[in-house]
Amino acid sequence: MGGYQVIIVGGGPAGITAGLYTARAGFKSLLLERGAFGGQMINTSHVENYPGFVEGISGAELGLLMHQQATKYGLESKTIEVAAINPGPPHTVSTSEGNFEAEAVVLAPGSEYRKLGAPGEEEFSGRGVSYCATCDGFFFRNKVVAVVGGGDTAITDALELSQHASMVYVIHRRDQLRASQVLQHRAFNEPKLECIWNAVVEEIVGDSLVQEIKLRDVKTKELSSLQVNGLFVAIGIIPNTQSLVGAVEVDNGGAISTDEAMATSAPGIFAAGDARSDSPRQIATAVGDGATAANSVMKYLQEKGR
Description:
Strands 1, 2, 3, 4, 5, 6 and 17 form a 7-stranded mixed beta sheet that branches. Strands 8-15-9-10-11 form a 5-stranded parallel beta sheet, with helices on one face. It is elongated. The chain has 6 helices and 17 strands. By secondary structure, it is α/β, with parallel strands linked by helices.
């Protein structure tokens, strides 16, 4: 299909920002997104930590506004599934509707939180079940919450939540944490934090909001209940990089490796947002990544005389 100067893969805040910058600078740019524009952000009912919105804003509305702004400056968009990236130049992006070519590519496919798979998890997502303590911890001020997981992210989340909640339970399927010793020391010395060992979540129950979680002891198989107002799941992140196999270098977790300019291992291919290694996975940082990647793209194309 027709050639472009820039193709952006992924329509979350990182991808939209990259497209806004390149399109506004006059580069023929195409954004490819398999779902709704805005990415994971659209599942957040109330965003309070994005600058400029004093009363907060829904993730869906913020995503719509971002996309409208980028479109205003000439960004083309297609709702389409990307199957593979073949480095060039020109780089070829294979999709469910054929191939697209570009001189430069920005990869911003985002990531997904690893799910528990327990009954009630989907039903109560956004109504007590959360995957981001930094985003949602404030809503549980003086309430009882639980965190599932035993790694650095889970314990960091638990410590963050202890600044808001009245009590934080850490539910871990093993009898010791995997988090770093520094984080473990802080956790064990936090009076509002208690570990529940050798336990997994069997079910999440409530009415309009989470009220209780049912636990199973992995050793004794005994069932128990825990009254909580919120459940934070911190058992890992899955970068949406399956279509990038062989195209660019990724780390052991499948996240895209970049330098400070967002350049990947393939010349002319850049990455931004949650699918990038060591991403803080926040809307504001994704936007920053997108802007940095776009500036790197523009510099790359200008140096090639495009």
